[in-house]
Amino acid sequence: MTSLAPIYAERTNAPHLTKIGPEHLPVLSSILRNVQRDDPFSRSAAYYAMTGRKGLWAYGDDETMMLVARHPNRDDILLLFPPMGRDPAGLLAKAVDDPLSLPSGRLELARFSAKDQALASRLRTMGAKEPHQEKVLDWAYPVHVVSPKRIVEREGKPFVSFRGHINRAIRAGYRAEPIDLDQNRDDILRIIEQWADSRGDSDFSHDDLTGPTHSVLNLMDRTDLDIGGTISYDSDDAPIGFWLWEQVGTTAMSLVRAYLRHPGNAEYGILSMAEQLSNANIPEMCLGGSETADLDAFKRKMQPVRSIALSTVALPDRHLAAAMRRYPVAPFPARA
């Protein structure tokens, strides 16, 4: 595995916390490419930066590290992503035993996989609760990986409905093109504002809905991460949808997408994405997980080549309480 030392301000054998900014992302990206986990997003620096847009840190030493993020929608929660390196379980135990070494907040282990047996064993000894289904973020439902080539071909009975939607979109005169920020930035911003406004019944704030897009656009402006995308227009050349992803090796990682409610628009967006990736000889697209059952059902219609179920683990509050007794500092206030 690539040395973790360049992430930290100084070499250290003891766990150390470093805030991650755009300048760290090239090194982080090179480290993540070597991570061996079944969750594809564990290799996406752009995904972590987007999810950690309200605060992202690296915690660890020269040999073991985990990424820590302020929950993007709940300020009182700190997300700990599964550690990587020599001693993942040991590092997690250190973080929980002395939570004041981390930013304030209730600790949750995010994107926990059934294959994380070493972590599961340590969590049981720590008295952590059983993994539970995520309630808010994008792994509430399984992560799905699809074949762009198969979507482009859209053959057979599983794609009957999809073909119907695509034919409707073609008759309506939709078109799509690869995203060029110099040409498409204003259209992307217009789409995301209209999309957020249409979600008035959502439990999320306007910032919750538009924040991921603004974060990814910022990454495109300030980093060299390999982020691309597609944007769709209707027959009047009005922008109606976009999709942005990061390419990591031979897999494209879906970051953010928004399609306005036009017949066949969402399906046409998936086809445009698949055509662009297939033409670039990218064999896999990770659609990610979903926050809702409806979105999960939509992704399943694309006939995933594999799916990965993830969960969340609430880390034991008793460790935080014990630390608070040793060091009397007010906890981060819970959202009302």
TrEMBL record:
Every Phosphatidylglycerol lysyltransferase C-terminal domain range: 42-295
Coiled coil: none
Gene3D superfamilies: 3.40.630.30
Pfam families: LPG_synthase_C
Name of the protein in question: Phosphatidylglycerol lysyltransferase C-terminal domain-containing protein
Organism expressing this protein natively: Rhodobium orientis
